[in-house]
Amino acid sequence: MDEILAALDEQQAELDGLLSPIDAAAWAQPSRCDGWTVSDVVLHLAQTNEMAIGSLTGTFNEVLTALTTGLPPSDNVDDGAGLMVEHERGAAPDEVYSRWRGGVDQMMTTYRAADPHARVQWVAGTLSVHTLSTTRLAETWIHTNDVAFGVGVTLPPPERLRHIARLAWRTLPYAFMRAGRELKGTVAFELTGPAGDEWRFAADQNADTVLRGTAAELCAVAGQRAKAPDTSLTAEGPDALDVLELVRTFA
User: Fold this and answer.
1) CA Rg value for the chain
2) Does domain 161-246 have CATH number 3.90.550.10?
3) Quick count: other Cβ atoms within 10 Å of Cβ 140?
4) H-type helices in 77-128, by residue range?
5) Contact predicate 233/212, CB 8 Å
6) Which residue has the higher pLDDT, 123 or 196?
7) What's the pLDDT score for residue 251?
8) Where in the chain is the domain with CATH 1.20.120.450?
9) What kind and span of H or E run contains 235?
């Protein structure tokens, strides 16, 4: 898991580099995340990092209760996240930054003391510490780019997308289950990384369905920041349309 945590450190540092120099006006700018300002995005990351700390320390339910007390019930994870942000938005930028930064430091320390194979509670059930760390990388990358949009910066796709793309491939059965559908066969991803090298994720050499394209576009689609038909992604095989529609890196 050291490689994942190193990538997560790098991702947090990239976000910190965007946040540290900006003023209050920039914190109030609309982000790429519809309806959220830059400050809202960072608040959301602070909240979900606190949930991850709760998972790692066996206090997930307590943390979630503290974040949602007084809120109406939500139908799905996205609605719940929106309600949590709405409930706590309005703090000064330095307060939001300090909360996020402190949570990052605590979370990373807790990750490094944890058993990568231990099962912990998360939003939609249990998962391994290793998988949880990769989901935090995926979410932080997506939201870093949401912030970058808000402050007028374009970030190049990083090599750490490999971990996020692999997560999207590994969790396809979960994505299909959530949608009430069944995979008809095995799936492979054949992707081009940011440096132009080829990445292949497959359980065997003869996958029934193959998705092809750039890792950056795949990760954007899996993180709900792009629609597959608007990208150069292609897929062939019995599950092609479903894979392009359902691929995801979030609960």
Assistant:
1) 18
2) no
3) 22
4) 77-88, 93-112
5) yes
6) 196
7) 67
8) 2-150
9) strand 234-236
Name every residue whose Cβ is closer than 8 Å to that of residue 12 and which is 6 or more positions away in sequence: 104, 108, 140
Report residue 19: phi and psi, to 5°: -80, -40
- pLDDT tens by residue, 207-217: 999 999 999 99
Rounded to an integer, what distance in angstroms lies between the CA atom of residue 202 and that of residue 166?
Answer: 9
Stretch(es) of the chain classified as CATH 3.30.1050.10:
161-246
Q: Which of 11, 48, 251, 248 is nearest to 148 (CA)?
A: 11
Kind and range of the H or E run holding 213: strand 209-214
CA count, 13 A, side-chain hemisphere, 41: 30
Tokens 């944890």 sit on residue: 114
Question: Which distant-in-sequence residues (6+ apart) come within 8 Å of 5 by Cβ?
Answer: 108, 111, 112, 133
- Give the pTM: 0.95
Tens of pLDDT, residues 27-81: 999 999 999 999 999 999 999 999 999 999 999 999 999 999 988 888 788 888 9
User: Quick one: pLDDT at residue 77?
Assistant: 83
CATH second-level architecture of 2-150?
Answer: Up-down Bundle (1.20)
**What contacts 24+ positions apart, CB below 8 Å, involve 36-42?**
36/85, 36/146, 37/150, 38/146, 38/147, 38/150, 38/151, 39/89, 39/91, 39/93, 39/96, 40/85, 40/89, 41/143, 41/146, 41/147, 41/150, 42/96, 42/97, 42/100, 42/143, 42/147
Instruction: Identify the DSSP state of 30.
Output: B
Nearest to 233 by CA among 219, 218, 216: 218
Who contacts 237 (Cβ-Cβ below 8 Å, separation ≥6)? Answer: 185, 187, 207, 208, 209, 210
